[in-house]
Each structure stands twice: as C-alpha cells, then as structure tokens.
Amino acid sequence: MCGDRSGNFGMMTAIMLPVLLGAAGMAIQMGDLLLSKQQLQEAADSAALATATALGNGTIQTSQAEAFARNFVAGQMANYLQDGVDIKNATAVNVQTSTSGNSASYQVTVTPSYDLTVNPLMQAVGFSTQHLSASSTTVNGPSQTPGSNSQGSVSMFLALDKSGSMGEDTTTVNEDDPTETFTYACNPYVNKKGKLVYDTCTGTRANHYTKIEALKMAAGNLFGQLNSADPNAEYVRTGAVSYDIVQYSPSSLNWGTAGVSSYVNALQANGGTNSSGAMSTAYLSLTAKNAAGNDAEDAAHRAKTGQVPKKYIVFMTDGDNNNDSSGGRSYDTLTKATCDTAKSKGIEIYTIAFMAPPGGQALLQYCASDAAHYFQAEQMADLLAAFKAIGAKASAQMTRLTN
C-alpha cells in the first residue's frame, strides 16, 4: 500500500482546494474593493465640495455642515451599499472656519468609512469583511494665511467683439419669441405707366437669436458661476471692454459682476474688427499700478481678503481682424504681443472663437494659455457652454479640493 500512488491527484486537489478558492476569491474581491474604494472617494470629494460651497454661499450654517455632509455621502453611496450598512453615522466631518478682514473661509474634511462584506469564496478561507475608508478636504474661499501669495481671489477682464457680424442670426430659435413677421415683395404686375411693380406682403418665419444676444446669455452663464461661488462679492472683481474697429469705454474692474453684467447687456453690434486695443486695455487693467506704485488689483484684494488674486482675460471674437490702413496685419501682431506679455505675467487667457473664420480661430488659438483654454463654438449652445465652463474653472479658485 505504501507504494500505491493511485489517488494522489485527488489528495493534492483536496489539500490545494482551499488555497485555490481563496486565490480565486481574492482576485474577484480585489476588483470589487478597488471599485468600492473609488466610489467612496468620489462621494467624499463631492460631499466636501458641496459642503464647502454651501457654507461659502450662506446656504447652510456651520452648525448644519456635519449633517449636510453626512446626508450628501449617504445620497451618493445609496446605490452602492450593501443592505444594513449605515454610512451616514460612520462619516466623520470636520469644519474649520478662518477669517481674513471681513471675510470668512471654510475648510471641510469629510471621512466616510464602512465594512464591505466579502464574497463567499473569501469567506470560505476565513475572511468576513473588508474595512474601506476615504478622506477629502476642500477649501472654500482663501483659507491661507493673510498676506501669503496663495490664491483664492479672482480678477477677470473680458474683451468682447461687438462688430457688425455679431448682429447676424445664429441657428438657434428664440425660445421666448419663436416666430417673427416680415414683409416681402409679392404679386408682380404692370401698372398704368407700364412699369413692373410689386405688392407688399407680410409673412412669418423662425426668429433666431443673434450672435450678440447669444453672447449676452453666455456671459450671464459665466457671471452666474462667479456669483454662486462668491455671493457677497468679496473675492471676485470683474471688468470688460468691447470693440469693433475701435475699442469702447470699458467697464472698470469692480467687486462682483453687477457692473460688467450691465455693460455686456447694453452692447449693440456694428462696425469692423480690431482686437488689439481691447486686449491691451484688458491687460493694462489687470496690471495697473496704484498711487503708491503697487499692483492695484493685488492691493484691492489684499485690503479685503488678504489674498493675491488669480488674474484672467476672456477674449471672444466671431471674426478675423480687418487689415490696417496700410493693408497689413498689424492688428493681429499687436494682439499677439499683448497676449505674450500677459501670459508671461501669469495671467491666464481664455479664448472663444464664435462661428469665426480660420483667421480668427488662429489668432485665438495663439492667444489662449493652452489648448484647454481655447473654445471653438460653432453654434449658440457651444458658446453658452464655453462661458459656463470658464466661470466654473475660475470659481474653482474659491472652492477646491486640497487632497
């Protein structure tokens, strides 16, 4: 019997089976653990961002922040949790408030955790649960030490094309007034003097938004994003300048968006296209010196929040610059030079080419800080989305994940 080896495979299989089951269970479980960990981290990030934003907007008070964050995590994880898991009470929330001048900022840390029941194969080798946890910290408003160079404040200047082509129709029908009446020549006939004449008839047609109307709505999207992040106009300063063949008197940089919103809503389309003066005005407005010889924008923000602002130019056109009086392209050259200088000073430039020809697209691609700062809007919906995205990115200066 000692020399009989029949049945060895069966014995080896019996010995190795628990190991094989455990290995299979571990492989399957590892994928589940990674997915569950990712879901938990996303819930922590979202809850921290939402809570910090709500505190900054005044939607909730600090006494309500813990419950708000816990409920948010529970809502985010509702579709992923196993029966009986109470993640709400297992979520730790820490809120720290700091003040700078008359402004308050909030740092919110959300740390959810729960025990994930492992699969039967893992249970067969002695495991029952796996503990998962995640943590996310978000800052709303400038939470750094006053006087530091960290940025939570924003200064933004818009350079907007109001040339004649901005009065042209887009392909988007006006939702509030979808049809319009128009007159046209009809019913031709020969009058008593032998001349061919026409009656005047009236018809109806689709009423499309014009480009300038689309611009006003798109700018409203941007301002709405900034207002949501800074409802008390403590961190954001905005200004704007419009141009056609010449630039027009700008709306100077000021707190909030009320002044620049009124300025944009009053724009009317006419004239040619020359962006050089407007871009120079945008740059000089963001870098002007005060009476003491210091950067005026930095000083304004320091006095109110103790912070140095992040500076942006938003440059939009629907056309190509006209040739100058000598038939040259000096308007493009001057615009590019201003863009180069602004970028060298750390100013971020967002550009939007709205149904623009190749020449206009090329100029805006050159001026954008990088490819992610350039938007090519071929229809009104693209323009609305571009301005909203720029507003969201600028607002992230005030509400951001720190780890």
Main sheet: which strands, in order across? 12-11-6-13-14-15
Distance between the termini: 67 Å
> How many strands in all?
16
The rough form would be described as: extended
CATH architectural category of the largest domain: 3-Layer(aba) Sandwich
Q: Give the amount of beta strand, in percent.
A: 25-35%
Count of individual helical segments: 10
Number of domains: 3
Pfam families: Tad, VWA
Protein name: Putative Flp pilus-assembly TadE/G-like
Task: Summarize the structure in words.
The chain has 403 residues and is α/β, with parallel strands linked by helices. It has three domains: 8-138; 154-167 and 210-401, Rossmann fold (3-Layer(aba) Sandwich); 178-208, no CATH class. Helix content is 40%, strand content 27%. It contains ten helices and 16 strands. It has helices at 8-57, 62-77, 120-123, 211-229, 258-265, 276-287, 296-305, 330-344, 358-367, 380-395; strands at residues 92-100, 103-111, 113-117, 129-133, 136-140, 154-161, 169-173, 179-190, 196-206, 208-210, 236-243, 251-255, 310-317, 348-354, 374-377, 399-401. A six-stranded mixed beta sheet has the order 12-11-6-13-14-15, with helices on both faces. Helix 1 runs antiparallel to helix 2 and helix 6 (276-287) packs parallel to helix 8. The longest helix has 50 residues, at 8-57. It is extended and about 125 Å long. The chain starts with 7 loop residues before the first helix and ends with a strand. This is Putative Flp pilus-assembly TadE/G-like. Residues 134-153 are annotated as: Disordered. Residues 155-390 form the VWFA domain.
